[in-house]
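Subject: Protein entry, chain in single-letter code together with its fold tokens

Category: Structural biology, sequence-to-fold work with a learned token vocabulary.

Notation: Tokens come from a learned vocabulary of local backbone shapes, not from coordinates.

Start of record: The labelled sequence and token lines come straight after this line.
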Amino acid sequence: MSAEHLPTLGELALEVRSKNAGPFWVTMELFMRDAEGYALVADEEFLDEDVVARLYDLDPADILFFRIPELNVVKVSFPRPVAQGSLRDRDVHAGQHHVPLAALVPGRR
């Protein structure tokens, strides 16, 4: 018996992306399709510092949220695990950091 498919944030959003916010920070952006989708990701009961900390092995105190209802966008910023371009940096542009966030399923923490 197959389980009902529950959409991920990546499927609900127009775009989920990550990028450098300077050499020491990463910013991830959730561009939602409409106000309903925005309300889902802006809801601190679903997506908050603790959830992001768990996904990225961070201290919740280091995570910044920017909720922009006029644009249906939620931005999340946090310190990079290593400085951009340093010897241990495996993603110089921070272009893959969004993947765990995009895989989240609303309704499941």
Summary: The longest strand covers residues 13-20. The chain is about 20% helix and 25% strand. The CA atoms of residues 7 and 31 lie 15 Å apart.
